[in-house]
Design brief:
The complex is a heterodimer of chains A (about 60) and B (about 450). Chain A is about 70% helix and about 0% strand. By secondary structure, chain A is mostly helical. Classes of the chains: A mainly alpha (about 60), B alpha/beta (about 450).
Chain lengths: ~60, ~450
Amino acid sequence: MGANEANLIRAIRWPVTMITLGCLFFLHRSAGFNVGVLLIVFGVLTLFARGTVNAPPDTGQGGKR
Amino acid sequence: MRRRSLTGPIILILVGAAFLMYNLRPDIQLLDLMSEYWPLLLIAWGFLRLIEVVVDYSRGTLSSTPRVGGGEVVLILFICFIGWGFLSLHRLGFRFSPIWETGKEFTVSKQEPVGQAKRFVFEGGRGNIRITGGDTTDIVVSGRKSVRGVQNAEADRVNDSTPLEIVKDGDTVTVRTNQDRNSGGGRIAEDLEITIPGGMNVDARGSDGDYDVSEMRGNVELHIEASDVRLNNIGGNARVELQSSKLVRAVDVKGDLDLQGRGSDVELENITGQVTINGSYDGRLDFKNLAKPMHFESPNTDLRVAALPGEITMSLGDLTGNNLVGPVHLVTRSKDVKFEDFTNSLELETDRGDIELLPKHVPLAKIEARSRSGQISLALPEKAAFQLTASTDHGEAVNDFGAPIQKESDGKSASLKGTVGQGATIHMVTGRGTVSVRKAGADSEDRDKSEKPEKAET
């Protein structure tokens, strides 16, 4: 995975968490407020973000030296 | 140079637009709406942030540093904290709008003889309504009308344009609040007490408010958008249709009761006729002393009992019943179920949840219990006669009845099979969890030491 994708995952982590949080508050009356969902979403995105840390950076050179 | 986020200004514009709307339309209950729908602000905020990220990514200008700073996180937590407080107050029935609103209150009083009319129709709007049957030949309406969100002169005009009417047509007497005639500003609410002859049939319609109907010998029919409903001492059938409610309470209804719609808590007690409940209710449901068949149907639960001399209590995760007359039929998705002292056959199925059954009377009737994931525990009278088949795919099998019941284990699965006397069939199946057949009244601690597996796989 390239550096851009890694940045993308890091960047969408908070917006997705906010949307999840808003949905949980909005739907809590019918579905109950499940903090677990929030933790899972944030955890999965954090895992993805960390999974990209060790990936070789994508220089975009396409094999040129 | 890194482009600054557009989210902050857009959120400011949205909040400003909300306050501007309140200035232009003061009848809109802004704070009450915001206390209910503020989570949409978080969702919109998140989507705006997401759009920014995607745009930056597509342009190749996505920064490697996080776009959400500490201040923004604190602000989000602050909004959640305040919003949750407002939402909780709103759900408890607190209304913010009347705190500072302008407006005026008017007294409502009207009386008309009913004549030969047998049917009473109430066409209301917003407001709390109490309808009481009595030994009278007149319809008596009294109460107060409030017009909020406008200055006094405009309130007077609104009041004049929406007079309360009593109209007689054939065997029907109609009371109309005429709130729909209000074409100007202001928000009308009428809290009324209506006394009518107790033998009339009632048909009431409204948009928002609590409805309390009592001491009626005829039928009662309510069609209301958002309301708490209380029915007390109704001689005929009762039918209630709701789009939203915090509480529906019916006590001492002689006829059938039919409840349709959505809401939270439901309390039914001493219902002589058949009970049908259809809809979605996310609070606590209490049913006591229902003399005839009851059918409860929601998106997640289907429950039928032939009668309920005892009590059933239901919440999102639990269902307990005591003293039920079968056949009992229950299909539910995710509930722990406990039925105690039931007669006739029982058929029970749950996707996720433990099942605990304690029939107290012999001879036993047919029992069939299934759970995809959850333990099933059956405690039988010591002298019970039955033919048992019980199995679990992942779990243990526990037997209190000794040699007549054969236990088999195969890897993670286990089963019980056997006959004790000549009795009804009992069939219990679970995908994951312990199945147990015990003698009621046996010492549970001793039993646990001797029979219970070291590790239950639930």
